[in-house]
Amino acid sequence: MKYLVFDEISREEMDKTAPNRQVHIDEREKGRIPPHVFPDHLIHGDLPQFTQSIRLFKIYEVDDPKQLTNITALYSANDLRTHKRWVIPITDLNEFRPAYEQYKKRMK
């Protein structure tokens, strides 16, 4: 399953995460946290629900739901007060379309 993930964090707290970057890399290599389908990207516009100056998004591809638990625990261990995360399941349109057409036919 793929997830669109939004993060926001203050600049000050972003700096606090730098020393723990290697732990993050190690956990990803061990498969304990989800891999990125794409690297982090910055959002260059305002989104009304965001309040911190650094706004990011990523797409995870998750093989095991425990990976989401582990990535949440890893970020929580940093004791960040301003960090917020939204995890939104997404589906590839090419995978969705055949199922949609099948159900559409059955609903007639």
Overview of this protein structure:
With 108 residues, the chain is of the alpha+beta class. The protein has one domain: Alpha-Beta Plaits, CATH 3.30.70. The protein has helices at residues 11-17, 21-29, 66-76, 93-107; strands at 2-9, 36-42, 54-61, 84-90. A 4-stranded antiparallel beta sheet has the order 2-3-1-4. The longest helix has 15 residues, at 93-107. It is elongated. The mean pLDDT is 83.
Topology summary:
Layout lengths: L1 E8 L1 H7 L3 H9 L6 E7 L11 E8 L4 H11 L7 E7 L2 H15 L1
Antiparallel strand pairs: 1-3, 1-4, 2-3
Give the DSSP E fraction (strand runs of 2 or more residues).
25-35%
Give the CATH topology: Alpha-Beta Plaits
Distance between the termini: 30 Å
What oligomeric state best describes the polypeptide chains here? Answer: single chain
Number of β-strand runs: 4
Which regions contain 5 or more consecutive residues with pLDDT less than 50?
Answer: none
Share of helical residues: 25-40%
Q: In sequence order, what are the helices and strands, one letter per element?
A: EHHEEHEH
| Structural shape | elongated
CATH architecture descriptor name: 2-Layer Sandwich
Q: If strands are numbered along the chain, what order do they take across the biggest sheet?
A: 2-3-1-4
Report the sheet with the most strands, covering strand number, pairing sense and barrel closure: 4 strands, antiparallel
Q: Helix segment count?
A: 4
Q: How many discrete domains? A: 1
Category by helix and strand content: alpha+beta
Residue-averaged pLDDT: 83
Look at the structure and give the CATH class: Alpha Beta
Radius of gyration using CA atoms only: 17 Å
